[in-house]
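Re: beginner question about structure tokens

> Can someone show what the tokenized structure looks like for a real chain? I only ever see the sequence side.

Sure, here's an example I had lying around. Input first:
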Amino acid sequence: MTKGTTSRSETIWFRDAETGARIRQVTNQPTIHHHPFFFVPAWDDAMRRLIFISHRTGMPQLFAEEQDGGRLVQLTDRDDLAEWSIYPAHDGSSVFFVAGTGAFRLDLETLAEERLVDFGAVEMREKGMVGAAMGTTALSGDDRWWAIPVKSDGVSRFHVVDTRRGGSEIILERDTIGHPQFHPDDPDLIFYAGPLTNRIWVIGRDGRGNRNPYPRLDRTQWITHESWIPGTRELAFVDWPRGMRAVDVDTGAVRTITSFPAWHAVPDTLGERIVCDTNFPDRGLHVFPAREAGDVARRICCPHASSAGEHWAGPFPYNDGPREVYAPQHTHPHPRFSPDGSRVVYTSDASGHAQLYECMIEDRGPNSA
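And the corresponding structure tokens:
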């Protein structure tokens, strides 16, 4: 298979055995598939295309499912794609990705690839399977700015790329920079994950105002899986496995969202609902309110993914420094709402291979939990 190859829809419909929800299996090939990471949209805002990664060619490549007709299109044919770096443009015109030591924009109409930045002889990412080692990137809501952490000579440099003019500016250098996310309503504000012992940091796009609005309480607290709540100045985060909290990054005010043991969790585009997966034990995917405290969550489906990563079953494992863990990310569901809130995309390897699925959400109301 080569770039531009098209194939028919692989859709298979079925009902979730536990909840009765309508499920659409999107991919059906005996290999690895996954959508972007849980805080990265899988669709453009108008939902013209569903963007995902497939290993069906023998290595990870970008694919799109066209929502009008379901045709699958292979978008890249590379041997150096950083598969967790992908970020679809909100306007549906392109997909941004890192390959090798370059940052690229792919035009979704012509499939032309434009190199926006060449980072030179650098490591690009930390070693490992989790956190900063994944190489996730961030795109501002107006598609103007693209934030990319780059590891070079043991230092993490935070590059912000101007997608209109090209080129990049380094706004920060420090020990580690992972999982960046632009505020959905403010292209001048970025969250990034610092060291695992003190993760929550925000910084201005110009490099000013670097600060830690929520320092970790003690050595037992495990802060992870952060995401912005649209329509607020709050950053939600998982206090594993004790539930979720949110911090106002301007005032430092902290509140409890839920005591439900959410794992990967992210709000919808309105900031009204949160969807999460679960682990140790796996209870399936759940939805609960984002702005009202509570411990009730509605189960929507049960992916039965293997969710590899035994370190999640115990206390915080990183107090004494980095630890090598086995946690292939394509084995985790990483649920994400569609832009219109009608469905949730997730990954599951329950069939023996990681496939892409959509769970249809019958009740779209903010209190549907």
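Each token stands for a local structural state, so reading them left to right follows the chain. The longest strand covers residues 145-152.
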